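A common beginner's mistake is to predict each chain separately and then try to dock the pieces by hand. The better habit, illustrated here, is to supply every component at once so that their relative placement is modeled jointly.
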Amino acid sequence: MATRIHPILGAFAILVFFFLLAPLVIIVGSALSDTTFLTFPPQGLTLRWFANIFQMEAFRRTAITSLQVALLGTGLSLLIGIPAAYALNRYRVELPRWLSTLFVLPILVPEIVFGFALLKSITIGLGLPVFISLVVGHALLILPYSVRVVGASLASFDFSIEEAARSLGCPPLKTFMTVVLPNIRAGVIAAFILAFITSINDVSISVFLTGPGISTLPIQILAHMEQFFDPTIASVSVLLMLVTVGVMAIVEATLGLTFLTK
Amino acid sequence: MTVSLTIENLVAHYGTTQVLKDLSISVAAGELVSLLGSSGCGKTTTLRLVAGFLQPTSGRIRLGDRDLTTLPAHARDIGLVFQNYALFPHLTVLENVAFGLKQRGLAKPDRAKRAMAMLERVGLAPLADRLPAALSGGQKQRVALARALVIEPPLLMFDEPLSNLDAKLRIDMRVEIRQLQRANGTTSLYVTHDQEEAFSISDRVAIMNAGRILQLDTPEVLYQKPANAFVARFVGFENLIRMKVVERQAAIVTAEAAGGTRLHLSQDLFGPIKDDFILACRAEGLVVRREGEGIPAVLGTRTYLGRAYQYKCETAAGEITANGPLSDPLDAGVRAVLMPRPEQCCILDPEN
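With all components supplied together, the output reads:
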């Protein structure tokens, strides 16, 4: 028996999907337009704007920077986040409650404020080079994902198997590597992907931390758009979307998306 | 290699709460000793201190001539069996059993051979390639047992290993554990809250309460000659009657309970009786008769037990539970007398 849907509810759902998907359709359409300005619906179809991206050195360079920052930042955030999540779960009773809240602060603070604070503290205060600042800033921004997602898989981890390993002669650090890590693998991968996507799409932190000669792709897109209003912007956006969709497809194929939401 | 475990004056705290108060116990080489008590009595804390998962405030733990007290858990060489099995979920049954051998640096073919031999002993060789998730509770506990035994530890410890199994399996498993422990002659410490389990599996049992050992003895002695009121209640003496000696004539002592009830007790049967004592009787240790010598009682609720009728009786010395014969069911309100059977009662010192 088919489930009956109330007509108003159905109309509402269609409206929501329309508003979610329409911008994407417009961007894809604009990217294919054979005009020198952004327009929708496209007038004539061409892939030359995609080719144009690869010919523009600024896009190539910033895309590489973005990838480097995302990889290093995510790695750094996991390096801090996994032990933090472990400690927060293992010593839940002994540790104060506010400590776990501390690790989600970067999400709670408005990103623009967080970005400005990072500029004042690490770029100006500590005088770190631009690239290092970017990596550190992104690592801090995505730390909540690492701690929360890894923490979620640790919440169902039975710590007595850690004791079993130790009783069998396995030292603590080796126990963590050979017994704990393999059992929270899914959480670590999920955290990596969420953090990576957040980092590669970030504007509000990067806009403060990029500097002379070093920029990330989203910032380059903004800068480009201020000067040129051609479909290159749209085609870069389509590529970014494709990368994100590709990553999600890999997750779905290997682990299933459900574990991102649980 | 069998060695003894010696725990001396162990004191432990959780925060500011003292959970072990000067606990000493020694387990002889090859012996199985149980720590028995209700939850919160300190039995699991004791086990975790010996395992090295907790640090004592003071006291010493020795295994043979090795001092374990400050040794990290992984260097203690103790086989542990957990209540929730604690198998490694990402490893197969064989890899689980071989884990301890791997830590000891055995080559792969060697450890596979020894792990397999141990799996055969617990009857699980055909399941060697399964993951723990595909095993039943009883099978999981056998794997855990094999994993603890295969490293041939000088000390085996069990933390309520059978609590998660159903009743029939529990009995099978405890026989199996006992056989394996005897065959290897491994010194063992066994923690449980189940009296029957402790009594059936152990050479000696330590009854614990509030961080102390109240009595450490063979199951027979504990069952028949408890040292104090707590242990007596724990091993099923329903009735503890405070009495005072009022007259002594040779071996016969006349004692009086609250309310003036008098009993004549023979020191030849009960052993020496102090002036102030507690008469501990199980329900089946009291004869219920219509008349004669004994504690006068008014019978209350009657319960059918299968082997006897049990009565809740009102007496001048308080409520007493007694069993009467099946041949003569008595109704509530009937006046009767209760006479202790010396061989099923014992005399306790209220000071203990």
